[in-house]
Write a structure and sequence with these properties.
With about 325 residues, the protein is of the alpha/beta class. It has two domains: about 230 residues, TIM Barrel; about 90 residues, no CATH class. Helix content is about 35%, strand content about 20%. It contains twelve helices and 14 strands. The longest helix is centred in the C-terminal third of the chain and has 19 residues. It starts with a helix and ends with a helix.
Length: about 325
């Protein structure tokens, strides 16, 4: 198998980390990725669901897998701070807590996670951000390139970014952005990454908690259908990568409310405003095609809805075969 600094650090057998993906990644997806040897990540966003909701999701995950799992949080400059109780709930049940940094790293938060026995990863978009995160105590870095789906921190492609980050820090570095096939995974590992981070491919997994129409839109798309934009910035003005068709549908939609989404922690419904950065989850109603259909440039590798474990095995086995052939 492909043993790297990443697999040794977190205890995985395959150097694949699943992206956080917000509420699209719940217990079933997290556990499925981990059971296949990768690192499944529970999407905790800004602490949605509170400490009780996060603890419940991780407890359910723990009932489905004994393998290492992680929890992903988004840190935004100027936003209300994440409740420390949410981080405590995550750190007490997960091996790794990850911060997607849209702000300077907080050594206090990292220390809090360490005190509870979990590792810390920071997802960044530049070498300078990577150095700041490691100086603040991060154990691992996820370097996110411009090709990534969802909200995008970097303004440069993955390979140039990866080279700079690897030169800047001496901790395991996972490559993120545009990786959804065995060939892309092998290329990132050959370039020096300690692992790869996969998002779009897992959105189209059986276990992902997203609307079937969203999954089908990914299957129908090609790499050129993924666009970098600020269209879905209502409430959070940040660049992101979505399907071109979603932008066109949202711009053509007549009205302020495109539909309703299910709130996972209390099973209620809430209206979703046009141009809001909310992806359509299971149970969403309305004009799904006009919602934020996040997708990276790896979307061309999505050919069908598959079990997450099959995606992990297909990518890992294919990458290992290619790396052996190349060497």
């Amino acid at each position: 198998m492909l043993e790297t600094r990443f697999t040794r650090l977190v205890g995985c057998t395959v150097p694949i980390q699943q992206a956080g993906m917000g509420a699209a990644s719940r217990a079933e997806l997290t556990a499925a990725v981990s059971n296949a040897g990768g690192l499944g990540m529970l999407g905790c966003g800004f602490g949605e669901g509170g400490p009780d909701g996060i603890a419940l999701q991780l407890t359910q995950t723990r009932a489905l897998t004994s393998r290492p799992v992680g929890a992903n949080f988004v840190i935004i400059d100027g936003a209300p701070p994440i409740d420390h109780a949410c981080l405590e709930a995550a750190a007490s049940l997960a091996q790794l807590v990850e911060f997607f940094l849209w702000a300077a790293p907080d050594p206090g938060l990292i220390d809090l996670v360490h005190q509870l026995g979990a590792l810390v990863s920071c997802q960044v978009g530049s070498a300078e951000e990577a150095k700041q995160a490691v100086d603040a105590g991060a154990d691992m870095i996820a370097a996110q390139g411009y090709e990534a789906g969802g909200h995008v921190r970097s303004t440069v492609g993955l390979l140039p970014l990866l080279g700079e980050v690897l030169e800047a820090v001496d901790v395991p570095v996972v490559a993120a952005g545009g990786i959804g096939t065995a060939r892309a995974m092998a290329a990132a590992l050959a370039a020096g990454a300690d692992g790869v981070r996969v998002g779009t491919r897992f959105v189209a997994s059986v276990e992902a908690w997203v609307h079937p129409g969203y999954k089908q839109a990914l299957i129908d798309a090609h790499a050129e259908d993924s666009v970098y934009t600020r269209t879905f910035s209502l409430g959070w003005d940040a660049p992101h990568r979505v399907l071109r068709s979603a932008v066109a549908a949202a711009e053509a939609f007549d009205g302020d409310i495109v539909g309703e989404r299910v709130i996972w922690w209390n099973n209620t419904h809430a209206p979703l405003r046009r141009f809001a950065p909310g992806m359509p989850f299971e149970g969403t109603t309305g004009a799904v095609e006009a919602m934020a259909l996040f997708a990276g440039e790896s979307v061309g590798g999505v050919r069908q809805v598959q079990p997450a474990g099959d995606i992990v095995r297909e990518m890992a086995e294919g990458a290992e075969h290619l790396l052996r052939r190349w060497t």
